[in-house]
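Researcher: We plan to redesign the surface later, but first we want a full-length starting point. Tokens attached.
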């Protein structure tokens, strides 16, 4: 059973994922898996070099993530192209892990669950929400990023919000705020699924 964990930047997806791991559940961090794929796959590196920018990688070396982020979060076509390059390999990797686990639930944390095609494969989707100002403050502190950079990333995730609407019958929402309340919400959610 595949269960998605999604939410915009700074919403608290990683906190929910960490709670689930601490409770003994298997959780895949799609950003980490995508990074491993980009670093390890010659095909993906060549595609990034040829289709997005040779300044990011020469097709052999590990992509410069900061340069890549600067490009894709400010250029919608480049972002869509990167997603196209990485997402099919990522979905196959998740399927492999799912086959190994068998019937055990597998949680996948992804900022763009619907756009990546993973939402289609999820029985349930846990959507983590938080106040916009709180999200800005978290990311500012975590990444030492400017508000302009954070807002650009938030804007790049607006399409995801629209796409998620088609899965509303499978979405379970968690509001991230107080730690104790969050833990209670996660435990209650686990009982319901």
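Model: Full-length starting sequence:
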């Amino acid at each position: 059973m595949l269960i998605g964990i999604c939410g915009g930047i700074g919403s608290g997806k990683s906190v929910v994922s960490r709670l689930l791991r601490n409770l003994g559940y298997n959780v895949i961090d799609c950003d980490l898996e995508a990074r491993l794929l980009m670093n390890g796959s010659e095909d993906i590196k060549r595609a990034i070099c040829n289709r997005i920018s040779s300044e990011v990688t020469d097709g052999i070396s590990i992509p410069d993530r900061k340069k890549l982020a600067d490009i894709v979060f400010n250029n919608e076509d480049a972002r869509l192209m990167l997603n196209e390059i990485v997402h099919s390999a990522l979905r196959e990797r998740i399927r492999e892990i799912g086959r190994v686990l068998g019937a055990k639930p597998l949680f996948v944390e992804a900022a763009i669950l619907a756009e990546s095609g993973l939402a289609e494969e999820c029985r349930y989707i846990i959507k983590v929400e938080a106040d916009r100002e709180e999200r800005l403050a978290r990311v500012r502190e975590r990444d030492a990023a400017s508000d302009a950079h954070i807002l650009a990333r938030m804007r790049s995730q607006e399409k995801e919000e629209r796409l998620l609407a088609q899965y509303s019958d499978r979405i379970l929402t968690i509001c991230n705020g107080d730690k104790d309340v969050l833990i209670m919400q996660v435990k209650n959610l686990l009982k319901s699924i």
